[in-house]
Structure formats: C-alpha cells, structure tokens
Specification:
mainly beta; about 55 residues; Rubrerythrin, domain 2; single chain; binds zinc ion; 4-stranded antiparallel sheet
Length: about 55
C-alpha cells in the first residue's frame, strides 16, 4: 500500500474540503496546498488533516 488517502483541511475554518492521496514512500513532508474553500469563499491554505486507510 504505497498510496495513502488523506483529507485536506482548511487552515482558516477547519473544514475538510478535499480528499486526495499521496505516496508516502516518495512524499514524506506534510502537504500544504492553496485550495478554494466554500465556507470561506476564497482560496486558503489547506493542510493534511487525517490519514485514512
Ligand atoms: Zn475555510
């Protein structure tokens, strides 16, 4: 199981807006992406919230 599912959480309101995955063997750092948050109605920084198997 190289590819791991995770959720992306809004850094401002805490909403979990996106589900993505990454290869933990290649990508060991925490993801931090600018994504659109519907609750904030703007792009905010989204970080890893939860690793779901
Ligand atoms: Zn938000």
């Amino acid at each position: 199981m190289a590819q791991t599912k995770l959720t992306l959480k809004c850094g401002e309101c805490g909403g979990q807006n996106y589900v993505t995955s990454k290869n933990r063997q290649n990508v060991t750092e925490r993801l931090s992406l600018s994504k659109y948050c519907r609750a904030c109605r703007k792009h905010t920084k989204h970080g890893e919230a939860r690793l779901a198997r």
